[in-house]
Every structure is written in C-alpha cells, then in structure tokens.
Amino acid sequence: MKSLKLDSKKLYAGAAQVDITPTIGSLIGVGFFSHYARFINDPLFSKCLVLKQDGTTFALVMVDICIIPSNLLNDIKEKIELETGIIKEHILLACTHTHGGGDVAGLLGGAVDINYRNQLPERIVTSVAQALKRIQRAKIASGSSEVTGYQLCRRYFMENEYTPINPVSKTTDSIKTNPFGVEKYIKGSAAPVDSEMNFVTIKGLDDTWISILANYSSHYAGDWDSDTITADFYGTFAQHLSQNMDAPKKFVAIMSYGTGGDVNTWDFRNPNKFPKTQFAKTEMMGKDLAEGVLHKLEDLEWNENPNLNVAYKELKLKIRKPTKEELEKAKELFSKHSFNNLRVDDHGMGMVYAREQILLNEYPDTHTAAIQAVKLGGQIFGAMGGELFTETGRWLKNQIKNANYFTICLANTYDGYVPPTQELERGGYETWRARSSFLDGEAEEALKTTMVSLVNTFEK
Description:
Elements: E1 12-19, E2 27-29, E3 35-36, E4 39-40, E5 45-53, E6 56-63, H1 70-84, E7 91-95, E8 101-102, H2 114-133, E9 136-146, E10 152-153, E11 155-158, E12 176-177, E13 186-189, E14 196-204, E15 209-216, E16 228-229, H3 232-243, E17 252-257, E18 263-264, H4 280-294, E19 308-318, H5 324-336, H6 346-360, E20 366-376, E21 379-384, E22 386-388, H7 390-399, E23 406-408, E24 416-418, H8 421-426, H9 443-456
Parallel strand pairs: 4-16, 6-7, 15-17, 21-23, 22-24
Antiparallel strand pairs: 1-5, 1-9, 2-3, 2-8, 5-6, 9-14, 10-18, 11-12, 11-13, 14-15, 19-20, 20-21
Helix pairs in contact: 1-2, 3-4, 5-6, 7-9
C-alpha cells in the first residue's frame, strides 16, 4: 500500500477493477445445460471498493459472474485476508448475476470450467490489493431513483386450462415461472416489484470521483445469444455512468444484484415492448439506470465524516433433501436414460432434476449462510447469499427506516433461491428442490430477522 499517514477517525476509500473475461471456448453459466463461449461482447471485471476508518477496513468486491459456490467464496476470502489483512467478516464478496460469465458453479445441467475457476481467485485478490493502494481521504453521499419499465414478476398464476408441473415432485404447482410459449394462459402476476434503485457515491475530498455503488432488484436483461460473454446491464450501466461523468479512468462504477429472485425483464404479455436486436434492451436498461444516478448527483448531500460500522453473523440453516423413495426414483430414471443430448422439455427437465436429487443427497443436513450489514454514515446496506424475493427486500426496507437501505444478494455464501414460505408452497422454478434451491421454509424468516438484528446493533 502506498505511504499515507492515516487519521484513524477519518474515512478513506479506494477503488479498482481487474479484467476477468474468460477466453473463447470457455463454459458459460449458469443454465439448464452448458454453453461454450463463441463471442465476447464486452469485458467482465472484478470490481473492488475499499473503505477504511478507525482500525476497520472493509472491502466490497463485485464480480461479473452468475454464481460462485460457498466453498470457492471462502477460499477467495482466505486469499484476500492472507494478502491484504482484511478479515473475512469485513469482506463483502458478491456476484452481479450476469448469465454471460464463466461457469464456476456447475448447477443443474451445467459444468464447471476448471481452468477459469483456477484463474479467478487471483484476479479477484488483485482487484482488492489495487484498491487498497489507491486509498485517499473520502466523502460519501447516497440517494435513490425510481427506474421503471424493466421489471416484471416472473412468477404467474395461470388459467385452469394450463397445469404447471413440478419436475421434482411430479405434482401440480400453483405458479408458473417464465411462461414461454404458454403466455395465453397467464392469469396474473404473483407479486409486485421494487423499482427503486439505491446508490452510494464516493469522492475524494478534492472532488475526484472514486466509485459509485448501485443496487437494482432484477435478473439480467438476457437479450443475447447464450454463447456470448457479457456483463449484461450491470456492464452497460457502468459504461454509461463512466462516459457521462467528469471522472478519472480509475473511477469504478458498480451495479449490484438486489432482491430480484422473482423478477426479470421479460414482458410475456407484451412481447414487442423492446427491440429484437441483440443487446438493445441491455443497452437501454443500462443507460436508464445510469441516468437515474446522473440526474440526482447535483442534489446529493455529502458527508466528510461518516462512521463506518460492519456487522457479520453466520447461521446454520436446514437443507431440503430427497426422501429415500424420491432418491431411488431418481437413480432409476438415470439408469434407464442417458444424460446426453437433452433438451429443455419435460424429459430433459426430469433428467436434470433427477440428477439434482442425487447430488443434493450428498449435501450435509445443514448449510452455513452469512449475513452482513454495513453502516456508512446514514447509509446502510445488507448482504446475503441467497437470491431473495422482492417481498423480502421490501420487508427489510420497511423495517430498516430512516436509512437508504438496500440488500445485495449472492454475497459471501451461496444460499440458492430463498423464497418466502408461502411462495415455497406455491411452487415454480425458484422453489424446485435442487442445488440451486435447497433451504427449507424457515430460512427466509431466519435470514431477514437476523439482518434486522444486525442493523439494530448499529444503534447501540
């Protein structure tokens, strides 16, 4: 780290980004089946924002990737601590959830790209080390904007003429997720969305821009071929923001994945809403989100002396596993049919989820989930490892009042989808028991109440 005499009571910040773009031929994930990268549309990054005050050093690291499993997250955090001295409780390591990144998780019918998985940790560690070298006295401000037109609840109630089938239980669901091809049977959305984009801005005391961290609750735009590497709207947001600000090259714009586990950008009842050309929606979405920040910059109130506090807790949560009978049926299906050349149809989904039951059965009975809360002056944000639903995010915002609160998902551990109990009972893709949805019905309540209790410690 550069030589800098620190005043322990003051806030310091630094930011950096390191290219983590996979090569052509790499496996892209996560999907029902593996895809190989044929094209690179835009670069992927590991982006780091480091905050330091009064003996506390906190690193937020956002990686342009879909999912990082818990064991790899832990390994990377250990490497960061070894090289920088930042303890794991003060590292927020999260995924943007672009589906155009390298596959290091291998969920559902996908496979891990071993070469990319081996390369990724060192690149992420480098982004943290570089951010630390750039720390300077800093000030912060925060705000929010309403950005509409890009979010819809992707979980639908369907008319009686259509029957959603759960490929795990083989029973009827009350919900159909992403009703491609059966749009005419849609009755209505299962839940509202949260169109608020929250953001935190960081400048040096000389008014030089350091970083902006934003948060939006939606899945990826996904208007591109599955064999293309891209950071999706998380990347176009950063590009548009950087291009339209008087910021130095080392400025780092970060978009994080909010509580959009049940939200995406496809309007199934209005299929012509967006242009059909590749990346048109991605560009529009990124630009409008960037504009949502740019329009508020002049109205921000800057704090040169914010207090930095970090709280962290780990919970043991129960894992849903197949019964003995379900496991035997899954093994029998595997013995009768090859896993090769499968498609996204009833048979293909049956095979994918049969495999998931066999692999999930090898999991322990409990899973360790991390909950983290960060207070920076009047700004508070939380981090959890699941793909949380909008209902959970809105509940947390309602509970954590008088703060520009938001939740960063897919952070620190991988908890899979974490639906509220009633949504778990309704069914739909996000609830189908698999390595991507494995916690029991008590998990959502435990996670959100723990987050509130951590935030409450800031008031003591």
